[in-house]
């Protein structure tokens, strides 16, 4: 395939070259005929050509006109129209023939034997075509022309030294013919090498064109990708701004919630201290009752065996919304527990009143119980007031929790609250002896209720501490989210700038490719 392409390119270049040479040789023949006639006339006028006559010069001029008109007319016929296909293959032989015709007319009309050397000009013309057939045709014409002149022109070969002259001219003609053949072959080889180089250059240009086309496609793809990235960066920028605004609002709500939880924790600590005081006073009353019951040999008090509440909370806080949901749920649970503690406080107050009545009935022996019952009543009233404050604080927590939940919107998912399982078993086995039975029963119930209240209050305290920790983590997470959102916003702006830079560079690359694309 490569050899066929090279041969086709060589023939194409050779044909184009021979077309140009045809025009050049035609111009040389026309100009040479005119200038040759003028030169001979000048030499005759100056008596340089003494042996030539004006008749000889006129005859040469007529031969020159004929030798010029033939190639001109042939050129007009073959170079245009329907004969253009055979123009190159025929016209070169016409020009070579006309050059030998002019040589024959010059040799036969000018009576000088040195004229025979002009035959080398015809050899020289045939080598122009880089064609072995043209050179062989020129050699054949030279032999025929010299033979014809040998018989028709007495000046062509002098009688003296005819043999040596003939041998000398034969050697000269042989060297001329060999030189013409060698020149034609070497020139043809050079043209073949040039055609091979041209073929390689054409292939390189084709490859380069393909590379430019691919680079142009890549440039367009980069430009399109840059526009897409810029669009996505703009959308991400807007989303980051909205997210940053929402994060700041939610963070403010979380800070307020944490503050409310802290206040609730302080109030609950005060409540726990009060309940511990009530429990201590109740235990002290039971101790006194047991001392009074030692003489009666019946002082067994079966203290209630109760199973402590077990609370298993499964927390799965994967987002800020879960923390707020859990905060809302646990706040409601605290509200229920506070209501339960309130009931215990009310019942404690009622029992302390009953104890006071029984102590009054006991007379002098019940004064100490009356004092203790009065202290228990006061503590129960203080507990009731503290519970009101806690209830108000819990309402504020619920209010802030709902506000945070409203701000989070669809981002918050409901987390499964931990199931609080409380199994309480209380059994009271008391043996009341003598007239203190009612007082001992009341004090035992007060002691047990105080212990239960203290246990529940401690659980509420632990839970509020967890809520405080969750609220703090929520606030930190929201601050981190806001900072991350700002970083994403800055990254989106940088991404948009980078996308614009890519788009501009791709346009510059496309311009460079367009301006440097080789011609087809």
UniProtKB/TrEMBL annotation:
GO terms for cellular component: membrane. SUPFAM superfamilies: Methyl-accepting chemotaxis protein (MCP) signaling domain. The chain crosses the membrane at residues 21-40, 60-79, 86-103, 115-132, 139-156, 168-186. Residues 232-468 form the Methyl-accepting transducer domain. GO terms for biological process: signal transduction. Pfam families: MCPsignal. This is Methyl-accepting chemotaxis protein (MCP) signaling protein.
